[in-house]
Automatic annotation (TrEMBL), chain B:
It comes from the Bacteria. This is Sugar ABC transporter ATP-binding protein. The lineage of its organism: Bacteria, Pseudomonadati, Pseudomonadota, Alphaproteobacteria, Hyphomicrobiales. Keywords: ATP-binding, Nucleotide-binding.
UniProtKB/TrEMBL annotation, chain C:
The lineage of its organism: Bacteria, Pseudomonadati, Pseudomonadota, Alphaproteobacteria, Hyphomicrobiales. This is ABC transporter permease.
TrEMBL record, chain D:
It comes from the Bacteria. It comes from Mesorhizobium australicum. This is ABC transporter permease. The lineage of its organism: Bacteria, Pseudomonadati, Pseudomonadota, Alphaproteobacteria, Hyphomicrobiales.
Length: 299, 514, 315, 321
């Protein structure tokens, strides 16, 4: 059963970040820090530098320090389960943010309080839906995948590929990993465009790679947005700006600003309210129709 | 050729061995027969193929052709380990031990003593001490080998080799870094081996040694076996003639190398050292050197000769002492300072401190000369070529050309490359630490002649040699060092050998000591 | 025959790859393909040139990726006026480029100082900056992405005088200069001597410490330059990612090119060929849709094979 | 002589002293730092690195290096996770077997192919990482919780975490092998001079072969612990483990050029670096500062610098003493 959380003014809460090597994670960390400072809570922050094992060990050190609650974006859906159970056993409630764990191994409402976040598969599907409506005859897709093995990459591929499979007018010419990084994304895009000169759609698993693809297209003398339609996920300011500039077609947002919602949920939990197992982020969707208007909700 | 020994009785029978390196034959047609319980000499000029023949035997190199019988059975080994297991124990030309490990390990690795499956350290230390005591060496066997000087290391290598109960012990120039006292200890050990029925294959360029201990000799030239005979059947001149491939008459000229000196050619004072000291090894050494003079350092193992030379050259830091060079005070902080002052230093340990093995002959010869063969930091290839070709010719370095890697040369030829490096810089003062180590008699005479000629042209030479004979003949003055202190100064060619020996051992002249 | 194969092992591997691509990769025989490959290989080559010199002295430099990140983080801060206000953009860019390359060079010098003064083994000495260097870059930018559109700076990654990308010209000049220096100058000869036998070099009057300081500093400068090229192409600098994993790419290029990792023997042209081989492998695998995981295995095989071929002419 | 001896002891055991100082610092500064939970979880987590560093230590003592340990551990974790439904033995065998295979490849490339260890193991690193992803189909692989497999990583032996016990046993065995078997002495001899060792008649190739195989197996074993401890085979774990291991070995006083080293001080090196992470986490919990990951890497780098500089000073003094 879930451990209770006493009602206090000031909590010592842990936030075990997975890594800090991209704008999305930085925005998430900042949001958590800012909200904690605003509410006067003490935030114990750790960074796992991209390792699930280290993240688990970080959570352990939080348990050892006796924090009141833990916010955890589990890097992967299985390796973090043992420490979530350990925290439960130590009487510390855990709130998962932005990624969930495998429900066959740990259950929300029993082993951890809840999962607050987006649905990666659905993000990808929404991009696909937009594409079907706005393809304008374009049909040959290059897909730039995230880091091989990372759950965001796996799900964003699955969601999109499954959707596209149902729409036979599209073909995915090539799908390769660009490591969620702009430079790698650019290099991979350059190569794939060279090998598949007929490609007219690029779907990138995040904005950074989409921006890399824009650089690749420009270097190859093509006009992004016109010759090749670009789609991505995340909603960075620079990405949304690219929509305004006509270079990117659409972006499904995936907001990293978890701070307010996370701490509010914790307060509700301490107050004894019933917490739903999945608190879904209502992700925005950017395209030319709203990019200017909603620019501020980009991060 | 002399009568071949009885085929059936042979311990080792190598026939028609061939070995090529990158197409160039090192062994063309080499044969070697060793009898049980004999001490067999293997001689030949530098690069004749002696070391290669040994390495082929022990499986370090794979032979291209030929057959080997050991104890009448075909002998096919793929590694030195197998050779060792089969009863052949080898001391290679360059000391091949592991300096960072303790003396005990260097002696006992490969035949460790065990108790209940695990190593028995105290037994191994005792074993190492026992073996070394046969050479009257008492050192702390737990210390790393690198704590000790070349000669001690050589003795450790020998102790290691005889520690294996082998039927054939191969020694490739074991005496080149030993002084006479140690050589005689080694010989008594070799005779003991012989008495125990063990055969010894002995490589040396010091002919007198061969006559002292060896029973038979095999002579190689250019990768072929040219002759094999009982030691007593062949005279020294004949031996040298066979080795060099010339007539006996032509060889006679080589006998004396340094020759009589014209003392009037010795000039004014070039270099002085006063009260040099550093650590325990050099405590108080003073000497001076004149232009055109050859000064010799004599002393026993660890007397501090090498250390003193290193201080003079700025290779080590001195703790006390003053030096002058050409009248000006001289304070070298590093070797570059000494070179700038016009000094050259040919070290005794050519493998560790001399050659750059991956570089070519040309690059090695010009290593200390870089500032002189360049302008604004850019090398002048033509100038380099000219210098290199001159020295390859003058020192008769046996190599396929200036662009051969030095690692591929025979030991003696590597030594010549080193000498060339220092001669090429045209120094005012040249320090030679064991300059003729491992060099064949023909070349040795040549080198000695060159040293003499350079001295006659005004070069000051400081020569360190374990061969007392070389010092006695070559040097105009001899400084005797003992335990880091200069204990005597003697006139070179006039000196009495007894006097020098006594000074080396006791610090005084023979009469006083007696 | 085998000797020939070995000596030109890398060239043969390269030719085989080109032939394979001509046969199987769509759209391969175009100028644009050459362009793509050359621009992509530039940064590796630039770093690998410095790395070759370091390796020739018997060392290794793990810090190059982090130094790229530092110079890449610093330059935009200067020309965008984050650190101090800029007046003239040309001046600002000039200062930014020089300062950030120099800073990387200074860090390289620090590596050299650890190696020569304290005799710390190169892998460990440069591991310090491998770990801390990227942290420094992240700290000065707070981990944030810096984006910019400054053509006065970005020419280094985007300009094409005579149709040839600027960074390719820089790479070619650097390679030529280093190859010449290694074999025709006292400095180059000294590097090889130090790598071949340090004690002997010292005794032959070569200033061993100074040579070591110099090669690590040069490696730092090269890394700094490469960092600028990367950020210029991307119009953005991300301290977290610039140069990530570069050390292994550069070392692999050096080794595939035929330079001994133990020092004393080096070839700059070989390094160029090695880098091209690795680049072409990457291109081939990507262009033919080999999945990332399988590509890793194939790449491993080709690197091992190429170096093995190199190895064969040594007895 | 007496003071020289003291310096020698400090030089060898400097890392142990530094470790003690760091633990004392943590104890005095943070509540619950030496609490049972923290100590045991630190030991449990770092036992994986300890295993990898042990293999690395032997490889380095021969003058080689093994860059593949991290991705081999990842491969091992995937293999053992896949095999875990068949029980604890199957899981163990699969993980160690995968490590063995990778170790064999390294060993063959280095001894038969004459490849430089850096390159041979770099290639294996890439290949192992690719194989892990292929085997796992780019995802983490769940282990079976029913077969008892998770006991290896999550169970306790009395109060001690089983992985820590495994690592300790491995170190004791390693230490005995190094100091009391001819194979161990040959390892050191090879590092001190490979050609010389071969000429001395030592079986250099065989021992080098063994060392790379052992390193592979230990990395595989670390992978088993990884899978078992976190309940999943993780194909993209293990990044940077090789550098952690190298740093630990060096901090433990083993010469990277080979020829000299100690197994037990390597363990101290692992703990020193591992506990440093823990201390940084506790420091963040004090509420004074919140060190970002960036500052943490700067601090880790500086810490490594201080340790190796100290070591350089001590060994320099030892040489002159
Ligand atoms: N590894 C090698 N590669 C190429 N050539 C070699 C190699 N080893 C030896 N040689 C050549 O083989 C020939 C014989 O060399 P070896 O070392 O056997 O001579 P040696 O008789 O022992 O001479 P020394 O008296 O000078 O020791 C020499 O010409 C040498 O250059
Ligand atoms: N009895 C001994 N035991 C151990 N080491 C010794 C002994 N005697 C001298 N040494 C070593 O000898 C070296 C100093 O002697 P050095 O080599 O200068 O003497 P040398 O007169 O040149 O002798 P050599 O004839 O060997 O060149 C030092 O490295 C010292 O450690
Ligand atoms: Mg020889
Ligand atoms: Mg001497």
């Amino acid at each position: 059963a879930l451990p209770p959380l006493a009602k206090k003014d000031k909590y010592k809460v842990g936030f075990a970040q997975t890594e800090s090597n991209n704008p999305w994670r930085l925005a998430e960390t900042k949001s958590m820090h800012d909200e904690a400072a605003k509410l006067g809570h003490q935030l114990v922050y750790t960074d796992a530098a991209g390792s699930s094992a280290k993240q688990a060990s970080d959570v352990n050190s939080m348990i050892a320090q006796g924090v009141d609650a833990i916010f955890l974006p589990p890097r992967e859906d299985k390796p973090l389960v043992p420490v979530i159970l350990a925290a439960r056993d130590a009487g510390i409630p855990v709130f998962l943010v932005d990624r969930d764990v495998d429900h066959t191994m740990a259950k929300p409402g029993e082993d951890y309080v809840c999962f607050i976040g987006s649905d990666f598969i659905q993000e990808a599907t929404r991009v696909g839906e937009w594409l079907v409506k706005n393809a304008n005859g374009k049909s040959k897709i290059i897909e730039l995948e995230g880091t091989t093995g990372a759950s965001a990459a796996t799900d964003r591929k699955k969601g999109f590929d499954d959707f596209i499979a149902k729409h036979s007018q599209f073909t995915i010419l090539a799908s390769q990993s660009g490591d969620f990084a702009r430079d790698k994304g650019r290099q991979v895009a350059e190569t794939l465009l060279q090998a598949h000169p007929d490609a007219d759609i690029i779907y990138a698993h995040n904005d950074e790679m989409a921006l890399g693809a824009i650089a690749a297209l420009e270097a190859a003398g093509k006009t992004p947005g016109k010759d090749v339609l670009i789609l991505s996920i995340d909603g960075e300011k620079e990405g949304v700006q690219a929509i305004i500039d006509g270079k990117i077609g659409a972006i499904c947002a995936c907001s990293p600003l978890f701070g307010p919602k996370a701490f509010a949920t914790m307060a509700d939990y301490a107050a004894g309210k019933k917490i739903p197992p999945f608190i879904k982020n209502e992700d925005a969707f950017f395209d030319a129709t709203n990019a200017k208007k909603d620019f501020d909700i980009a991060f | 050729m002399t009568a071949q020994p009885d085929q059936a009785a042979l311990l080792l029978d190598m026939r028609d061995i061939q070995k090529r390196f990158a197409g160039i034959p090192a062994l063309a047609d080499a044969s070697l027969q060793v009898l049980p319980g004999e001490i067999h000499a293997l001689i030949g000029q530098n690069g004749a193929g002696k070391s290669t023949l040994i390495k082929v035997l022990t499986g370090y190199y794979r032979r291209d052709a030929g057959q080997v019988l050991f104890e009448r059975k075909p002998f096919e080994v793929g590694s030195p380990h197998q050779a060792q297991v089969s009863g052949i124990s080898t001391i290679y030309q360059e000391i091949n031990l592991v300096p960072l490990r303790s003396v005990t390990e260097n002696i006992c690795l490969g035949r460790e003593k065990r108790r209940r499956g695990l190593l028995d350290w105290s037994a191994m230390h005792a074993e190492a001490e026992r073996l070394l005591s046969r050479f009257s060496i008492g050192i702390d066997v737990r210390r790393p080998l690198s704590d000790f000087n070349t000669a001690t290391q050589q003795m450790v290598a020998i102790a290691r080799a005889i520690g294996f109960s082998a039927r054939l012990v191969i020694m490739d120039e074991p005496t080149s870094s030993l002084d006479e006292r140690e050589v005689s200890v080694l010989f008594s050990v070799i005779r003991q081996l012989k008495a125990d029925g063990v055969s010894v294959l002995f490589v040396s360029h010091k002919l007198d040694e061969l006559y002292e201990v060896c029973d038979r000799v095999t002579i190689m030239r250019d990768g072929r076996t040219v002759r094999s005979a009982a030691m007593s059947d062949i005279g020294k001149l004949e031996l040298v003639a066979a080795m060099l491939g010339r007539d006996v008459a032509a060889v006679e000229g080589h006998a004396t190398a340094f020759g009589e000196r014209d003392r009037s050619r010795i000039g004014d004072v070039l270099f002085t050292a006063e009260g040099l000291a550093a650590g325990q090894l050099v405590r108080d050494v003073s000497f001076d050197l004149r232009r055109g003079e050859i000064a010799g350092f004599a002393g026993l193992l660890g007397a501090g000769r090498t250390e003193t030379a290193r201080l003079v050259f700025g290779a080590d830091r001195r703790s006390a002492g003053e030096m002058t060079m050409e009248g000006a005070s001289y304070h070298p902080a590093r070797a570059a300072d000494a070179i700038a002052a016009g000094m050259g230093f040919c070290t005794e340990d050519r493998k560790a401190e001399g050659i750059v093995p991956e570089m070519t002959v040309a690059e090695n010869i010009t290593l200390a000369l870089l500032p002189k063969i360049s302008r604004n930091g850019i090398l002048n290839e033509a100038r380099q070529k000219e210098i290199v070709e001159r020295f390859i010719r003058e020192l008769d370095i046996k190599c396929s050309g200036p662009n051969q890697k030095v690692r591929e040369l025979s030991g003696g030829n590597q030594q010549k490359v080193l000498l060339a490096r220092w001669l090429a810089m045209n120094p005012k003062l040249l320090i030679l630490d064991e300059p003729t180590r491992g060099i064949d008699v023909g070349a040795k005479a040549e080198i000695q002649r060159i040293i003499r000629k350079l001295a006659d042209d005004g070069l000051g030479v400081l020569m360190i040699s374990s061969e007392l004979e070389e010092v006695m003949e070559g040097a105009d003055r001899i400084f005797v060092l003992r335990e880091g202190v200069r204990v005597a100064e003697l006139e070179g060619q006039a000196a009495d050998e007894e006097d020098v020996l006594a000074a080396m051992a006791h610090g005084g002249a023979a009469k006083e000591a007696a | 025959m085998f000797g020939f194969l070995a000596r030109y092992g890398t060239v043969i591997a390269l030719v085989l790859l080109v032939v394979f691509n001509l046969a199987y990769t769509r759209n391969f025989a175009t100028l644009q393909t050459l362009n793509v490959n050359l621009t992509q290989v530039c940064t590796i080559v630039i770093v690998a040139v410095g790395m070759t010199l370091v390796i020739a002295t018997g060392g290794i430099d793990l810090s190059v990726g982090s130094l790229m990140a530092i110079s890449g983080a610093l330059a935009p801060m200067i020309f965008m006026g984050t650190i101090f206000p800029v007046g003239n953009i040309y001046l600002a860019v000039a200062v930014a480029m020089i300062a950030s390359i120099l800073v990387a060079g200074l860090f390289g010098l620090f590596n050299g100082w650890l190696v020569s003064r304290f005799r710390i083994q190169p892998i460990v000495a440069t591991l310090v900056l491998f770990i801390a260097g990227r942290g420094i870059a992240q700290v000065i930018t707070n981990g944030n992405l810096q984006t910019f559109r400054v053509p006065q700076f970005q020419w280094i990654g985007l300009a094409r005088p005579l149709g040839i990308p600027a960074q390719v010209i820089i790479m070619a000049v650097l390679v030529a200069a280093a190859a010449w220096a290694l074999h025709r100058t006292v400095f180059g000869r000294s590097i090889l001597a130090v790598g071949g036998n340090e004690k002997a070099s010292e005794l032959a009057g070569i200033a061993v410490s100074r040579i070591k300081l110099a090669v690590y500093a040069i490696s730092g400068l090269c890394a700094g330059l490469a960092g600028l090229v990367v950020i210029a192409i991307n119009s953005s600098s991300d301290a977290n990612l610039v140069g990530l994993g570069m050390e292994l790419d550069a070392i692999a290029a050096v080794a595939v090119g035929g330079t001994l990792l133990s020092g004393g023997k080096a070839t700059i042209i070989g390094t160029l060929l090695g880098a091209l081989t690795i680049q072409l492998v990457r291109y081939t695998l990507l262009a033919n849709g080999v999945p990332d995981a399988a590509a890793l295995v194939v790449k491993a095989g080709i690197i091992a094979f190429a170096v093995w071929l190199q190895q064969q002419h040594r007895v | 002589m007496n003071s020289a001896r003291l310096v020698r002891i400090i030089g060898t055991y400097g890392v142990v002293i530094a470790l003690a100082a760091l633990v004392l610092f943590g104890f005095l500064r943070y509540d619950r730092f030496l609490g049972l939970f923290n100590v045991m979880s630190v030991l449990r987590y770092n036992s994986m690195f300890a295993l990898v560093a042990l293999g690395m230590c032997f490889v380095i003592m021969t003058g080689g290096i093994d860059l593949s340990v991290g991705s081999v551990a990842a491969l091992g974790s995937v293999a053992s996770a896949l095999a875990s439904p068949h029980g604890i033995v199957a899981g163990l065998a699969a993980g160690v077997g995968a490590g063995l295979a990778a170790g064999l490849i390294n060993a063959l490339l280095v001894t038969r192919g004459n490849l430089m260890p850096f390159i041979a193991t770099l290639a294996t690193m890439l290949a192992a990482s690719g194989s892990a992803l292929l085997l796992a189909d780019n995802q983490t692989v769940s282990v079976s919780y029913d077969s008892g497999f998770t006991a290896i990583g999550q169970g306790n032996f009395w109060i001690f975490p089983i992985p820590a016990v495994i690592a300790l046993v491995a170190y004791v065995v390693g230490s005995v092998v190094l100091n009391y078997t001819s194979t161990g002495r040959t390892v050191l001899a090879i590092g001190g001079g490979e050609d010389a060792s071969r000429l001395m008649g030592l079986r250099t190739d065989r021992v080098k072969f063994l060392v790379y195989v052992a390193s592979g197996c230990l990395a595989g074993l670390a992978g088993v612990v990884l899978a078992s401890q976190f309940g999943a085979g993780q194909p993209i774990e293990g990044v940077g483990w090789e550098l952690f291991a190298i740093a630990a070995v060096v901090v433990g006083g083993t010469l990277l050029t080979g020829g000299s080293g100690s197994v037990l001080t390597t363990l101290a090196g692992v703990l020193l670096l591992g506990i440093l992470f823990n201390v940084l986490n506790f420091e963040n919990g004090m509420g004074w500062i919140s060190l970002s990951a960036y500052w943490q890497s700067v601090i880790r780098g500086l810490f490594l610098l201080v340790v190796v500089l100290l070591q350089a000073r001590l060994t320099a003094r030892r040489e002159t003493a």
